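Kindly inspect both lines:
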Amino acid sequence: MNRAVTSPDDPGAQVAARLLTELRGEITRADSKATVLVGALGISAGVLAALLTSRHWTPARLPGPAALLWWAGVFSLVIALFALLLAVLPRYGRSRWTPGRPLTYFGDIRRAAQVGRLTAALTDTGRDPVRALLLALTETSAIASRKHFWIRTGLIAFGNAAVLLPGSMLLA
C-alpha cells in the first residue's frame, strides 16, 4: 500500500531527511575528489610539459601514427580538465521557486525576497515541510548524479591520456 508522507515525524520523512544529509555529504566528497584530481592533472601536465620543453622537443618530430596518439592524448587531457572542473562547478541554476512552492535552498530564499514574498514563502514551507524536504532531496540527488558523471568522464579521459601520451613516445 502506498501512503503519502505528510508529517515530519513520519518514518518516510525521517528517511528523506537522513538521505538528504547523506547526499549533501556525498556532494562534498565528490567536490573533494574532483579537486584532488584537478590538482593531479595539473601536476602531471606540468611535469610533462617541463620535461619536454627542457629538451627542446616538439610533437612535430613524431611520425604520423605517433603524432596522432600524441594529439589524442593531449585532447584527452583537455577533456579531463574540463570534465573535472564541471564536477566542482556549483550547480545552482535558476530558482524554480514560485509563490506557493516551498523553499528548498538559498536561491529560492533569494528569489522569494526579491519579489517581497519571503515571509509568506517561509509560512508555506513551514506548513508543508515534507514537500520541501522531498523537493530538496530530488534536486540534491540530481546534483550528486551530475557531479559523479563528470568525475567518471574526467577519470576516463585522464586514463586515456595516461596511456596515449607515453604510447606515442614508444612509437616514435
Q: What stands out?
A: The helical segments are 11-54, 64-88, 106-114, 118-127, 129-171.
